[in-house]
Amino acid sequence: MDSLSTLASWIGESSSIVFFGGAGTSTESGIPDFRSAAGLYLTEKSSPYPPEQMLSHSFFISKPEVFFDFYRSKMLHPGAEPNGAHKLLARLEHEGRLSAIVTQNIDGLHQKAGSTRVLELHGSVHRNHCMKCSRPYGLETILESAETVPHCPVCGGVIKPDVVLYEEELDRRVLTDSIQALSSADLLIIGGTSLTVQPAASLTAYFRGRHAVMLNAEPTAYDSRADLIITDRIGHVFERVGELLA
C-alpha cells in the first residue's frame, strides 16, 4: 500500500481527526510564506528592517506606517481561493471525521472552504479592532482605507489587525481548545509547517492518538515521531486522497 492509500485508509478509520497546519497549506493558493513575502518586500523597498521586527508589537506601535505598508502589500490576499487541502478538510468535517483544524495561518481560507471548527493560533486578517473604543472591523476596512494607518471613523483610534504579532501572547482560549482537540484526536495530520514557530509547534506533543502523519515539502523535527511521512505539495496530495475516499 503506497503512502496516499495508507493516509486514505487511516482517514476512513478515524472519527476524530485534527489537522495542524502552517503556511505551506496556503502556498498553492498563491499566498507566500511569511519569510518569502518579507524577502520580496525588503528587496522592493530596500528596507533595513528584518521580517520579525516589522511584524512585532513594538514596531507596530513605533512605525505604524511601515507596518501597514508591508502588511497590506504582502500579508493580505483577499482574492486567494481554497486549494485541495482546504476543500478536503472541510469535507471531512462535514462527514463527521474531522474534529478541529489548528492553524498558524491568518488568511481565513479554511473558513472560505466551508470549515467551521478552525482554531486560529495567530489570529485572522479578517478581524480588526479599534485600539481606543474596541469597535470591530472587517478586512474591507483595512483594504479600503485611504490612510496608510487606518483609523476608527467613530473615535479616531488606530485600527489594529487581530493577528498575533511577535512579542504578543497567543490567545489562551484558543490554546486551551487546541490542546483539548489534540489530546482527544485519533489521527493527527500535520501539514505545511516545519514546526519551528513556538509555542505553536509544541502543541503537537499533546497528541496521544493512533497515527501521526507529517506532510511537508522539507524534513522537520517531528519526522522521527510520525508514523507516515509524505513529501509533496499538500494541495495535490489531498486532492488525490479525496479521490481515494470518494
Describe this structure in words.
By secondary structure, this protein is of the alpha/beta class. The strands form two sheets. A six-stranded parallel β-sheet has the order 3-2-1-7-8-9, sandwiched between helices. A three-stranded antiparallel β-sheet has the order 5-4-6. Strand 2, helix 7 and strand 3 form a beta-alpha-beta unit. Helix 1 crosses helix 10, helix 2 crosses helix 5 and helix 6 runs parallel beside helix 10. 40% of the residues are buried.
- Secondary-structure-derived class: alpha/beta
Strand order within the widest beta sheet: 3-2-1-7-8-9
- Average pLDDT level: 94
What is the total tally of β strands?
A: 9
Please render the helix and strand layout as text:
Blueprint: H1 3-13, E1 17-21, H2 34-45, H3 51-54, H4 57-62, H5 64-75, H6 84-94, E2 98-103, H7 109-113, E3 118-120, E4 123-130, E5 136-137, H8 139-144, E6 159-163, H9 172-184, E7 187-191, E8 211-215, E9 228-230, H10 234-245
Parallel strand pairs: 1-2, 1-7, 2-3, 7-8, 8-9
Antiparallel strand pairs: 4-5, 4-6
Helix pairs in contact: 1-10, 2-5, 6-10
What's the short story on this structure?
This protein has 246 residues and is α/β, with parallel strands linked by helices. It is built from ten helices and nine strands. The protein has helices at residues 3-13, 34-45, 51-54, 57-62, 64-75, 84-94, 109-113, 139-144, 172-184, 234-245; strands at 17-21, 98-103, 118-120, 123-130, 136-137, 159-163, 187-191, 211-215, 228-230.
